[in-house]
Amino acid sequence: MSYISLEVNCQEDFIEIFMAELAEIGFSTFQEKEEGNGLFAYSEENQTIEASQIEELFQQYESLTTVSYELGTVEKENWNADWEKNYQPIEVEDKILVRADFHPPNPKFPIEIVVTPKMSFGTGHHETTYQMLNLMHDMDLKNKAVLDAGCGTGILAILAAIKGAESVHAYDIDEWAVENTTENFSLNSISNSSYKIWQGEVDTIPSEAIYELILANINKNILLADIQHLQKHIKSEGFLMLSGFYENDIQDILNECEKYSLELFSQSVRNEWAALLLKKHK
Prior knowledge:
Blueprint: E1 2-9, H1 15-24, E2 29-32, E3 38-44, H2 51-59, E4 68-75, H3 76-86, E5 90-92, E6 96-100, E7 111-115, H4 126-137, E8 145-149, H5 155-162, E9 167-172, H6 175-187, E10 195-199, E11 211-217, H7 220-230, E12 234-246, H8 250-258, E13 262-270, E14 273-280
Parallel strand pairs: 6-7, 8-9, 8-11, 9-10, 11-12
Antiparallel strand pairs: 1-3, 1-4, 2-3, 5-6, 12-14, 13-14
């Protein structure tokens, strides 16, 4: 398998903006350059992303900043080696550490999640993951049923299991993400017959499945299409947690959620990325 790669050279202030914009046209994984002067964006090769879309996107910012880019492809194995080399731990305040298996433990964090960073799907950047983990940390998940929609590396599903969820389900459209999530469950000694991971999209959620919490850290367009399906699987007075979109997109997400009696319970914004926790009423 190959991936579409896009190297973007830009000012640091525009990195997060371009991540959001590129997610809108189909890029799913992002990595900031170590020098802070741009980013790398990746998408599966079967995604339909036209060069003209990219050019039009950056033309919108010509009067605001200087930007250049180079479009190419990269093989799965080479991409993975580069990702591992640059993967840095995620520190969620003093609560949670998400680290690769080649990083040393840090006892100052009460919760540690260990991952093999073979891939990072969904938005793939730390601002959205950070907020989802932070919101989850303060929730009582003991004996609850939780679904991670678009699980990627499985970080959110793993935290749900660590926090005592009785049932944890997770799915992703990509086979490699499912393999990675399965491996990461094992790394964190999570093994239970009620923990299930599968490959698929929103329509593969079992029709009878009902959850107290559904997690979806995906880009805006997918969320807007999937909310109508996800809400069918939320227990009355249960929760839907969403991230993967820009602060300016909050109202669009809320407008869609209001159609299904999903009311805003809490929200956070970090470096202009947003996360929403919504409660489903009868």
